[in-house]
Amino acid sequence: MTRFKRLVVLDRIILLEEQWERLRTYAEEVIEFSRLNPHELLKKLYEEMESDPKPMCWTQLAVEQVTMEELNRRLSGADAVITCWTGIPDDVLRANPQIRYIGFWTNLAAHRINLDLARELGIHVTYIPDYGTDSVAEMTFCGMLAVARKLLRSHHDTLRGSWPYELIKTGKYIPRVDQIPQRLLKGKLLGIVGFGRIGKRVAEIALAFHMRVQYWSRHRHPEWEARGIRYVELEELFETSDIVSIHLSPYAPEKIISASLIRRLKDGAIFVNTSSGRLVDQEALFDELSRGRIYAYLDVYEGLPPRKEMKRLNTYDNVFTYRSGWYTQEAVTYKGEALLKNIEDFLQGKPGVPAWEQEGFEEPLIELPCVPRDL
Questions:
Q1: In whole angstroms, what is the distance from residue 36 CA to residue 163 CA?
Q2: 188: Cβ–Cβ under 8 A, 6 or more apart, which residues?
Q3: Are 256 and 278 in contact (CB under 8 A)?
Q4: Nearest Cα to 175, choosing from 185, 165, 186?
Q5: pLDDT of 168-183, one tens digit each?
Q6: Do 4-131+328-357 and 133-320 fold alike per CATH?
Q7: What is the rounded CA–CA span in Å between residue 323 and residue 345?
Q8: Confidence check: pLDDT of 58 > 50
Q9: β-strands 212-216, 189-193: how paired?
Q10: pLDDT: is 23 or 307 the higher one?
């Protein structure tokens, strides 16, 4: 297997120790510009949070603000590049004709590089379209179950020695059925918004729970409809679903889940988002949550988690995590292996299909701001 002369890692990526060792064998020289002092990085992040509290994503804040000159300096002599958050402008591509390969450690690449220009210049670009499907789908149900069964409330009650079940058994407390907050998923109507890889996996799990399922997507899926899954318009989905779960591409229009749609949710409905926070009118959602009219499991937000706002909510009935959906041993390992395999295949002369031809590749519907901001 041939090797690159100079491989540049432009920003932070997550690889296991053994995977880093293998990466360093792929080039005569491997340069990492991502090993910033963690304390300095965190200080910078918190400073930028004050001026930009709602970026597209937390990782956007971690993009180093480098000039065109600095980016060209870092890429000087590099024939291979690995990047995640750092976009590579057209002028930088043209100024570095020696680059043969660019690998993105991410499932989104089209808004960070001009793929048509890369193809014209003969640069092979790869990305990782699917690494967390099962992780995100399972976390979706983890949150869904936690909210439906009031897991946090039960946990809190148990720690303080209060067990409603015992009060019922002793006859001290006799509830009406509507005073029992815990609910089954079985038989409930799940509305899935977005029917890509993760949406379909969520549908499979839902069927195993004997839930009823309906979906909305830009494209119809007759093979799934033949299995009893209904296609409905967004308004009907929000009005009729017991649980709504968002699985849209981040390239979907901002706030496509509008205040109007959120207000259509039934009383007691559960709203789940493990997709992208910028797609949801967060102010409207939090307003409905503060009323206690609906409940939610959220893993993504419009920017960073709004902790002050969330503290005002009844957090024993709602569940909040942050970008935990994909983060499992299996997904982290697979993502690293996928990156390394893309590089190995290229070096072995069998580069496979480039990013723009890979299954699951999606062109942006809108411009995303997650690029170096002073380039």
A1: 49
A2: 211, 212, 242, 243
A3: no
A4: 165
A5: 667 766 777 877 888 9
A6: yes
A7: 30
A8: no
A9: parallel
A10: 23
Predicted structure pTM score = 0.86
Amino acid at 315: T
Residue 76 contacts by C-beta under 8 Å, 6 or more apart in sequence?
A: 96
Across the beta sheet with 80-83, the strand order is 27-32, 4-9, 80-83, 101-104, 124-126
Architecture (CATH level 2) of domain 133-320: 3-Layer(aba) Sandwich (3.40)
Domain ranges of the chain: 4-131+328-357, 133-320
Q: pLDDT-derived band of residue 369, with 50, 70 and 90 as boundaries? A: very low
Q: Which of 187-201, 283-297, 312-326 has the lowest mean pLDDT?
A: 312-326
Rg of the chain in Å (alpha carbons): 23
Tokens of 3: 């090797």
How many C-beta neighbours within 10 Å does residue 231 have? 17
Average confidence score pLDDT of the chain: 86
Q: Which amino acid is at 339?
A: L
Per-residue confidence (pLDDT) for residue 285, from 0 to 100: 97
Output the CA–CA distances (angstroms, integers) from residue 196 to 193, 262, 275, in the order listed.
10, 22, 11
Return the residue matching tokens 């959120």: 262
pLDDT at 365 over 90: no
- Percent of the chain surpassing pLDDT 90: 61
pLDDT band at 375 (very low <50, low <70, confident <90, very high): very low
Sheet-wide strand order for 270-273: 230-231, 212-216, 189-193, 243-246, 270-273, 295-298, 319-320
- The class (CATH top level) of 4-131+328-357 is alpha beta
pLDDT band at 302 (very low <50, low <70, confident <90, very high): confident
Q: Nearest-5° angle of CA 161, CA 164, CA 165?
A: 110
| DSSP code for 161 | T
Asked whether 32 and 54 are in contact (CB, 8 A), the reply is no
Give the residue from 243, 288, 268, 242 showing the smallest Cα distance to 180: 268
Pairwise CA distance, residues 268 & 271, whole Å? 10
pLDDT value at residue 279: 93
Q: Encoding tokens for residue 57?
A: 């994503």
